[in-house]
Amino acid sequence: MERKGIVLCSVVAFLGVLAAATGFAAEATRIKASEVKFVSPTQCSYPRSPALGLGLTAAAALLIAKIIINFATGCICCKRTDQTWNSNWTKALVSYVVSWFTFVIAFLLLLTGSALNDQHGEESMYFGNYYCYVVKPGVFAGGAILAFASVILGILYYLTLNTAKNTTGSWGDAPVSVSNQGGIAMGQPQFPPRDPVFVHEDTYNRRQFP
After folding, report:
1. CA within 13 Å, CB half, 28
2. What is the pLDDT of residues 11-63, one digit of tens each?
Protein backbone atom coordinates (compact mmCIF):
# COMPACT_ATOMS: atom_id res chain seq x y z
CA MET A 1 0.00 0.00 0.00
CA GLU A 2 1.26 3.46 -0.82
CA ARG A 3 1.99 6.02 1.87
CA LYS A 4 -1.02 8.06 0.80
CA GLY A 5 -3.31 5.07 1.33
CA ILE A 6 -1.81 4.33 4.74
CA VAL A 7 -2.31 7.93 5.89
CA LEU A 8 -5.88 8.03 4.55
CA CYS A 9 -6.87 4.75 6.21
CA SER A 10 -5.26 5.82 9.48
CA VAL A 11 -7.16 9.12 9.54
CA VAL A 12 -10.46 7.48 8.66
CA ALA A 13 -9.92 4.73 11.24
CA PHE A 14 -9.19 7.37 13.92
CA LEU A 15 -12.41 9.19 13.04
CA GLY A 16 -14.31 5.91 13.23
CA VAL A 17 -12.91 5.15 16.68
CA LEU A 18 -13.70 8.72 17.76
CA ALA A 19 -17.29 8.40 16.52
CA ALA A 20 -17.76 5.10 18.31
CA ALA A 21 -16.16 6.30 21.55
CA THR A 22 -18.17 9.52 21.73
CA GLY A 23 -21.31 7.61 20.80
CA PHE A 24 -20.86 5.18 23.71
CA ALA A 25 -19.99 8.10 25.98
CA ALA A 26 -23.24 9.79 24.97
CA GLU A 27 -25.08 6.57 25.78
CA ALA A 28 -23.52 6.50 29.23
CA THR A 29 -24.28 10.17 29.97
CA ARG A 30 -27.75 10.42 28.46
CA ILE A 31 -30.59 11.60 30.68
CA LYS A 32 -32.30 8.70 32.44
CA ALA A 33 -35.93 8.58 33.45
CA SER A 34 -34.95 8.58 37.13
CA GLU A 35 -33.19 11.93 36.66
CA VAL A 36 -36.27 13.74 35.32
CA LYS A 37 -38.55 15.47 37.79
CA PHE A 38 -42.04 16.95 37.53
CA VAL A 39 -41.92 20.66 38.30
CA SER A 40 -45.68 20.86 37.86
CA PRO A 41 -48.34 18.46 36.65
CA THR A 42 -47.66 19.64 33.09
CA GLN A 43 -43.95 20.47 33.16
CA CYS A 44 -40.77 18.35 33.39
CA SER A 45 -37.35 19.33 34.69
CA TYR A 46 -34.38 17.85 32.81
CA PRO A 47 -30.81 17.96 34.17
CA ARG A 48 -27.91 19.09 32.05
CA SER A 49 -26.12 16.34 30.16
CA PRO A 50 -23.00 16.21 27.95
CA ALA A 51 -24.73 13.69 25.71
CA LEU A 52 -25.71 16.46 23.30
CA GLY A 53 -22.12 17.49 22.58
CA LEU A 54 -20.90 13.91 22.52
CA GLY A 55 -23.60 12.82 20.10
CA LEU A 56 -22.94 15.74 17.78
CA THR A 57 -19.18 15.01 17.92
CA ALA A 58 -19.82 11.40 16.96
CA ALA A 59 -22.06 12.45 14.06
CA ALA A 60 -19.49 15.01 12.85
CA ALA A 61 -16.62 12.50 12.99
CA LEU A 62 -18.67 9.98 11.05
CA LEU A 63 -19.59 12.56 8.43
CA ILE A 64 -15.98 13.70 7.95
CA ALA A 65 -14.80 10.09 7.61
CA LYS A 66 -17.46 9.42 4.97
CA ILE A 67 -16.51 12.54 3.02
CA ILE A 68 -12.83 11.55 3.01
CA ILE A 69 -13.58 8.04 1.75
CA ASN A 70 -15.93 9.24 -0.98
CA PHE A 71 -13.52 11.96 -2.09
CA ALA A 72 -10.67 9.45 -2.35
CA THR A 73 -12.63 6.77 -4.20
CA GLY A 74 -15.58 8.38 -5.93
CA CYS A 75 -18.63 6.44 -7.07
CA ILE A 76 -17.95 2.84 -7.98
CA CYS A 77 -20.95 2.70 -10.32
CA CYS A 78 -19.39 5.42 -12.50
CA LYS A 79 -16.16 3.45 -12.93
CA ARG A 80 -17.37 -0.08 -13.60
CA THR A 81 -17.46 -1.52 -17.09
CA ASP A 82 -18.20 -5.00 -18.37
CA GLN A 83 -14.50 -5.74 -18.56
CA THR A 84 -13.89 -4.97 -14.89
CA TRP A 85 -16.65 -7.06 -13.30
CA ASN A 86 -14.76 -9.52 -11.09
CA SER A 87 -14.65 -10.65 -7.46
CA ASN A 88 -12.80 -7.53 -6.29
CA TRP A 89 -15.35 -5.21 -7.88
CA THR A 90 -18.17 -7.27 -6.38
CA LYS A 91 -16.69 -6.95 -2.89
CA ALA A 92 -16.14 -3.23 -3.42
CA LEU A 93 -19.75 -2.73 -4.53
CA VAL A 94 -21.15 -4.64 -1.56
CA SER A 95 -18.94 -2.68 0.84
CA TYR A 96 -19.98 0.58 -0.81
CA VAL A 97 -23.72 -0.10 -0.52
CA VAL A 98 -23.63 -1.46 3.04
CA SER A 99 -21.34 1.37 4.14
CA TRP A 100 -23.83 3.97 2.91
CA PHE A 101 -26.73 2.09 4.51
CA THR A 102 -25.07 1.92 7.93
CA PHE A 103 -23.90 5.54 7.61
CA VAL A 104 -27.41 6.89 7.09
CA ILE A 105 -28.87 4.95 10.02
CA ALA A 106 -25.99 5.80 12.37
CA PHE A 107 -26.05 9.49 11.44
CA LEU A 108 -29.79 9.74 12.03
CA LEU A 109 -29.60 7.88 15.35
CA LEU A 110 -26.84 10.12 16.65
CA LEU A 111 -28.53 13.35 15.57
CA THR A 112 -31.96 12.30 16.77
CA GLY A 113 -30.66 11.09 20.11
CA SER A 114 -28.74 14.34 20.62
CA ALA A 115 -31.78 16.48 19.81
CA LEU A 116 -34.19 14.50 21.98
CA ASN A 117 -31.76 14.37 24.88
CA ASP A 118 -31.56 18.17 25.01
CA GLN A 119 -35.08 18.94 26.20
CA HIS A 120 -35.88 21.49 28.85
CA GLY A 121 -39.23 21.80 30.55
CA GLU A 122 -41.12 19.99 27.79
CA GLU A 123 -43.72 17.33 28.23
CA SER A 124 -45.77 14.98 26.08
CA MET A 125 -49.42 14.12 26.56
CA TYR A 126 -50.83 10.71 25.66
CA PHE A 127 -54.50 9.92 26.27
CA GLY A 128 -54.87 12.83 28.71
CA ASN A 129 -51.77 11.93 30.76
CA TYR A 130 -48.50 13.84 30.73
CA TYR A 131 -45.16 12.09 30.31
CA CYS A 132 -41.57 13.29 30.43
CA TYR A 133 -39.82 11.96 27.34
CA VAL A 134 -36.27 10.61 27.54
CA VAL A 135 -34.08 8.96 24.94
CA LYS A 136 -34.56 5.23 24.97
CA PRO A 137 -31.60 3.04 25.94
CA GLY A 138 -29.50 1.86 23.02
CA VAL A 139 -30.05 4.79 20.65
CA PHE A 140 -26.57 6.25 21.04
CA ALA A 141 -24.99 2.81 21.38
CA GLY A 142 -26.64 1.61 18.19
CA GLY A 143 -25.47 4.73 16.39
CA ALA A 144 -21.93 4.18 17.67
CA ILE A 145 -21.83 0.56 16.51
CA LEU A 146 -23.21 1.39 13.08
CA ALA A 147 -20.86 4.36 12.76
CA PHE A 148 -17.83 2.17 13.42
CA ALA A 149 -19.15 -0.48 11.03
CA SER A 150 -19.69 2.15 8.33
CA VAL A 151 -16.12 3.40 8.68
CA ILE A 152 -14.66 -0.12 8.57
CA LEU A 153 -16.69 -0.92 5.45
CA GLY A 154 -15.56 2.37 3.91
CA ILE A 155 -11.91 1.44 4.46
CA LEU A 156 -12.57 -2.02 3.03
CA TYR A 157 -14.24 -0.40 0.02
CA TYR A 158 -11.23 1.85 -0.52
CA LEU A 159 -8.70 -1.01 -0.27
CA THR A 160 -10.72 -3.38 -2.46
CA LEU A 161 -11.30 -0.73 -5.08
CA ASN A 162 -7.60 0.04 -5.27
CA THR A 163 -6.84 -3.66 -5.62
CA ALA A 164 -9.35 -3.95 -8.46
CA LYS A 165 -7.93 -0.85 -10.13
CA ASN A 166 -4.38 -2.20 -9.97
CA THR A 167 -5.55 -5.53 -11.36
CA THR A 168 -7.39 -4.06 -14.35
CA GLY A 169 -5.09 -1.11 -14.97
CA SER A 170 -6.56 2.36 -15.24
CA TRP A 171 -10.27 2.77 -14.38
CA GLY A 172 -12.13 0.34 -16.57
CA ASP A 173 -9.20 -0.50 -18.85
CA ALA A 174 -8.31 -4.09 -19.44
CA PRO A 175 -4.76 -5.16 -18.54
CA VAL A 176 -2.27 -4.94 -21.39
CA SER A 177 -0.92 -8.29 -22.52
CA VAL A 178 2.67 -8.58 -23.69
CA SER A 179 2.34 -12.11 -25.00
CA ASN A 180 2.67 -12.73 -28.72
CA GLN A 181 0.20 -15.62 -28.65
CA GLY A 182 -2.90 -14.78 -30.59
CA GLY A 183 -1.51 -11.36 -31.49
CA ILE A 184 0.62 -9.91 -34.24
CA ALA A 185 4.35 -10.28 -33.92
CA MET A 186 6.13 -7.16 -35.02
CA GLY A 187 8.60 -7.55 -37.83
CA GLN A 188 7.30 -10.96 -38.90
CA PRO A 189 5.56 -11.64 -42.22
CA GLN A 190 1.82 -12.01 -41.95
CA PHE A 191 1.52 -14.28 -45.02
CA PRO A 192 3.51 -17.38 -45.86
CA PRO A 193 6.35 -16.70 -48.33
CA ARG A 194 5.75 -17.67 -51.95
CA ASP A 195 8.19 -18.60 -54.71
CA PRO A 196 8.78 -15.88 -57.30
CA VAL A 197 6.83 -16.23 -60.55
CA PHE A 198 8.68 -15.56 -63.86
CA VAL A 199 6.69 -14.31 -66.83
CA HIS A 200 8.04 -14.69 -70.36
CA GLU A 201 8.44 -11.44 -72.25
CA ASP A 202 6.20 -12.67 -75.09
CA THR A 203 3.29 -13.16 -72.71
CA TYR A 204 2.30 -9.52 -73.00
CA ASN A 205 1.94 -7.56 -76.22
CA ARG A 206 4.37 -4.73 -76.20
CA ARG A 207 3.71 -1.63 -78.22
CA GLN A 208 6.40 0.68 -79.35
CA PHE A 209 5.72 4.35 -79.61
CA PRO A 210 7.59 6.37 -82.25
Report:
1. 6
2. 999 999 999 999 999 999 988 877 777 777 667 777 788 898 999 999 999 99
